[in-house]
Amino acid sequence: MAEPRGTAEQRLATRARAAIGALALALIAAWIVLGGFVDLAPGKAHSAGLAGKRARAHRVERELRQCVNVRRHKHGLKRLRVAQALKRAARLHAKNMAHHGFFGHVDQKGRDPGDRISLFHPKLRFVAIGENIAGGQGGANAVCRAWMGSSGHRANILGHYNRIGAGFWPGGYYRRYFVVEFARAR
Prior knowledge:
By secondary structure, the chain is an alpha+beta fold. The chain is 53% helix and 16% strand. The N and C termini lie far apart (94 Å).
């Protein structure tokens, strides 16, 4: 007669170790297949990555605003002042394009620039709103040069606006998404 292999508790512990090992292998395989983009240990590393993206976004957004205002100054126009609702709407749209895989002025929920701006300041009313978007360029200066070479984008940059908000987000198909919201306050 064969001897039983350990107690029931020992057999249960052995099965638990095997299950944990299989789960670890599955997570490692998923990490390899997805190119290392699975967040196996959320927390500080994830927060640090998001903080880095936000810091980069702030820098690029500042560069976009500066670039627009330099172009306006060269044409004898007043600089545009930052409006927080425009800034937040622009960042939201850049993030949405990166995360949801689209490129356009109307987002996946059917919102246009005016709708997105209203999300952040529903009582704020503008006489005119314009939006420039770009994807894939290397940085703010490249985007600004491209916009100045396009009649519609150039018209927004040199238009009769007095407020600006810039948004940037890395990721997605184009790897970098740039948005500038223009508005004329009453």
